[in-house]
Specification:
Layout: H1 13-43, E1 46-48, E2 59-63, H2 70-77, E3 82-87, H3 95-107, E4 110-113, H4 119-133, E5 137-140, H5 158-166, E6 170-176, H6 178-181, E7 196-199, H7 214-232, H8 248-255
Parallel strand pairs: 1-7, 2-5, 2-6, 3-4, 3-5
Antiparallel strand pairs: 6-7
Helix pairs in contact: 1-3, 4-5, 5-7
Length: 261
């Protein structure tokens, strides 16, 4: 019999992901039963192209990002369980409110992660790769953060890197109207605002080359963003969606050509 690990033995990253998936299982199923019908009643969403999402195997849903509720609209509209990464602080609250928020995030398929640039971004990609290695579906936003002006921003290469590294197909997603249902800065969604979720045909990005090639990652990213643009019909911003740099060094770093994950 394999001995139990010591109580203070650190879990591996794989173990942490597996544990979180186990914790989320029943909560997700309950949330799916409750949230999906409620969303259909309140927002009467138009869902197009559900059949384009593979029912089994790893898949990346790459979407534009207009509102916090995109992370609710996509999971309840997809034909299979979808996971996305969310700030770990959503899962760390205390008291009844903290438990409610954590359970709600698990109900929509969220997995906690420390977010940020540099090593934090690489760690987030590792978490998503582990989910794909399990044959699961993950959703992410290549723009990196929500668009505050409704335009579609230049894509970061993380989604393309994952697709080229794992061989998972990418389903582009266009969400429309979620920014009106819950604008950036709003604490509660508006009732009765209709939204549209469009799932495009899966993209096989392997023809761009290996994940180790910067040119392949950029080309694959541009193909993903073209697919999203065709679905969302947004105006193209042509630049990255970034917080303005503070300080001379940060401004120089942001101005110099470099890969955004």
């Amino acid at each position: 019999m394999t001995p139990e690990p010591a109580p203070d033995a650190p879990e591996s990253a794989d173990d942490e992901v597996a544990a979180e998936l186990h914790r989320a299982g029943a909560t997700y199923l309950l949330g799916r039963v409750i949230l999906a019908p409620l969303a259909r009643i309140v927002y009467r969403p138009r869902v197009e192209g559900r059949a384009n999402v593979p029912k089994t195997g790893p898949v990346i849903l790459a979407s534009n990002h207009l509102s916090f509720i995109d992370s609710i609209a996509i999971p309840v509209s997809a034909p299979r369980r979808v996971h996305f990464l969310a700030k770990s602080s959503y899962f760390e609250g205390t008291g009844a409110k903290g438990r409610l928020v954590a359970n709600f995030m698990r109900a929509v398929g969220a997995i906690p992660v420390r977010r940020g640039a540099g090593q934090a971004a690489l760690d987030a990609l590792d978490e998503q790769r582990r989910l794909l290695d399990e044959g699961l579906a993950v959703a992410l936003y290549p723009e990196g953060t929500r668009s505050t002006d409704g335009r579609l921003y230049k894509g970061r290469t993380g989604a393309a890197f994952l697709a080229l590294q794992t061989g998972a197909p990418v389903v582009p997603v266009g969400v429309i109207g979620t920014d009106k249902a819950m604008p950036v800065g709003a604490t509660l969604p508006k009732l009765g605002t209709r939204v549209t979720i469009r799932f495009g045909e899966p993209l096989d990005l392997s023809h761009h080359g290996p994940a180790t090639s910067g040119r392949a990652r950029r080309g694959a990213t541009d193909e993903i963003m073209a697919g999203i643009h065709a679905l969302s019909e947004q105006e193209l911003a042509g630049v990255y969606n970034e917080v303005p740099a503070h300080g001379t060094i940060e401004k120089i770093k942001q101005a110099l050509p470099h890969e955004r994950l």
